[in-house]
Specification:
Layout lengths: L11 H9 L4 H27 L6 H10 L2
């Protein structure tokens, strides 16, 4: 996996607490961004489904019947 270097700012007291607790700030940032992306994708998928909900489709009934033969 390719990576990209980025810079961000944190409150100084938060950095001090993280260091004192042995938290790897880079790893925590990666995990936080990954979690935020997963959450945003899930919300986007949900919104798309709400805009275009599934409806019964006779194609699937026919396909299921064909598969059972």
């Amino acid at each position: 996996m390719a990576t990209t270097r980025t810079t961000f700012t944190l409150d100084e007291s938060l950095v001090e607490q993280a260091r004192r607790l042995g938290i790897n700030i880079s790893a925590a940032a990666r995990e936080g961004v990954a979690a935020a992306v997963r959450h945003a994708l899930a919300e986007s998928d949900r919104a798309a489904y709400e805009r275009n909900p599934e409806e019964p489709d006779s194609l699937w009934t026919d396909a299921e019947a064909w598969g059972k033969e």
